[in-house]
Amino acid sequence: MEEKRGNYSVTDLTSLENLEPVRVRPGMYIGSTGPKGVHHCVWEILDNAIDEITNGYGDTAYVILNKDKSVTIIDNGRGIPVGIHPTKKISGVEMVYTELHTGGKFNHENYKTSGGLHGVGASVVNALSKWLEVEVHKDGRIYRQRFEHAYDEKFGRIMPGTPVTKLEILGKTNRQGTKVTFMLDPEVFSTIDYRFEIIDMRMMELSFQNKGITLILRDRRGEEEVEKTYHSERGLLDFIEYLNESKTVIHQEPILFEGERSIGNISLEGEVCVQFTDSSLENIASYVNNIPTSEAGTHETGFKTGMTRAFKEWAKKLNLAKDKNFEGDDLREGMTAIVKIRLTNPIFEGQTKNKLGNSEAYTLMNDLSYTKFYEWIEDHKDIATNLINNALEAAKRREKIKKISDAERKKVGKGTSPLAGKVAVATSRDKDVLEFIVVEGDSAGGSAKQARDRRFQAIMPSKGKIMNTEKQKLENVLGSEELRLFNTAIGTGTLTSFKLEDVKYGKIIIMSDADVDGYHIRTLWLTYIYRYMRPLITNGMLYLAQPPLYKVYKTGKKSTVQRYAYSDEELDAAKKEIGSGFNIQRFKGLGEMNPDQLWETTLNPETRTLLRVTIDDAARAERMVSLLMGDVVEPRKKYIYKHAEF
């Protein structure tokens, strides 16, 4: 083999200046350039405003969605420093918005705790914006500076976040605070669409976590302006009532405690609110310095450990745990908890701050939770006894389920294949390319088996509607033959036994008809996977297939022209494209398509459309699943009357 040679010298090295690294690799800073990244930019600026408020400066913040797709965020804090830095020779405003890792949050005299700790939030949003304008009200004056993705004389090229004006004084003011307006750049983001309901839930969460503050959301994009105000005087008590609205609680008064702990120069303020329901699953919403930690972390683990320790000790004191004991998972069955901490020097895993890594947070939360739960049990022995007995019953069920699972594994070990005749398996063993497709109905399943590429697509026909797992006991769910078949095929296990490394497929795809029944079937599968195999969603492995609604075609003397339409808008476009004399076929279900059509429209990776299922907000997702799929009727009825189009 001939060795390749070439020149590689210092002139081949590229140096990215100022904010260019953000522009080149935006995913490193905001996670993605899709809808999640768009909203993350709002959170970065909003977090800065909330940090001011939670550290005692100001009490009100606004988020305004403007008609031109820009966003304005206002707070009544101290205002960004406007003076000239002695060594940088530029204003504080310019430093904050043009230099990475610049801010007042590294000095704990200014901010005891903060969510925007990395000092990159403001500058990253500036780097990813077409333009950004900052207005500071401070010391009786109004200051303004504008930045654009524009030509920079210093570097001789177009640079992100370039100051196009100096810090100007506009006039006098009697207020304090910062106003930031930014227009994200369509060259960076695939679509710039701010979802009202996502921002609405985030601002509601922030008001629950910071009782007494006022947050205001204004949406000016429609014909009429929509305004919503958020203010909570009860804090986490209001939050847990909101989360449990669609659940049946087994004790009316939530467990609420707070406290402070310190290790060296790390101090922690923790607040916890817990309420048990008749659900068979736990739900923990955790936050660090107001940032939702959707992937949990050391603070949540410490909370669990301390709580379990306190209840186990009291179980022995009350002479309840005799022959058998319970584990933390058994105790937390049906528990809704909000775990909120403020921490100096939080260490997040990644700039998007989804998981806390501080070992000190584990120690501090473990200690705080143990002490406070121990005190609570002493004062509420009747409720605690009921919770411990429920945990002991859950432990018995767990043992029963384990025996059933072990028996299933032994069958497989003896050569009995539970998938034989029920799942059309694929020939490849490369899980990165393998797809597991659940198809509604035997008829469509038969077509899909013929249409698929058997090298990488496995097909499981679903027998109509699976059970609503939100309303079922754990043993009924795990005893379901169809769900057990799905679990065996995927290979990960469920709940606490879930192991992502054992997954056999890179994509799990739900394929159902584009009608009411099909959407119901899709919802039932989503509910099951959300509750029992959630990491498939959080790791981006769950998809929804999009079968077409229409086929528009025109047969000529020599050939047939055809287009598939997935919505009424696409139907209108297809009719215009084909022109007069067209015919329309309305697909009522997957079973109506022949294998060639099914492959072309829904299975072929080159031509199909898949929707990836994501969880943008854990607390909102939890509440919606409980509301739409749970036992309590009245909240669902209210939601349907408010949102449905009859």
Could you name the key traits of this structure?
nine-stranded mixed sheet; five-stranded mixed sheet; Ribosomal Protein S5, domain 2; 646 residues; alpha+beta; globular
Give your account of this protein's structure.
Among the domains are: 20-230, Histidine kinase-like ATPase, C-terminal domain (Heat Shock Protein 90, 2-Layer Sandwich); 236-398, 2-Layer Sandwich (Ribosomal Protein S5, domain 2). It is built from 20 helices and 22 strands. Strands 1, 2, 3, 4, 5, 6, 7, 8 and 9 form a nine-stranded mixed sheet that branches. α3 packs antiparallel against α5, α8 packs parallel to α10 (359-379) and α12 (442-451) crosses α18. The longest helix has 33 residues, at 381-413. It starts with 19 loop residues before the first helix and ends with a helix. The model is unreliable at 8-15, 105-109 and 115-119 (pLDDT under 50).
Shape: globular
Please compute the radius of gyration using only Cα atoms.
28 Å
Unreliable spans: 8-15, 105-109, 115-119
In the CATH hierarchy, what is the architecture of the domain at 20-230 at level 2?
2-Layer Sandwich
**CATH homologous superfamily placement of the domain at 20-230:** Histidine kinase-like ATPase, C-terminal domain
- What's the assembly state of these chains? single chain
Which fold name is given in CATH as the topology of the domain at 20-230? Heat Shock Protein 90
CATH class wording of the domain at 20-230: Alpha Beta
Q: Give the biggest sheet.
A: 9 strands, mixed
State which percent range the strand residues make up: 15-25%
CA-CA gap between termini: 71 Å
Helix content: 25-40%
Structural class given helices, strands, pairing?
A: alpha+beta
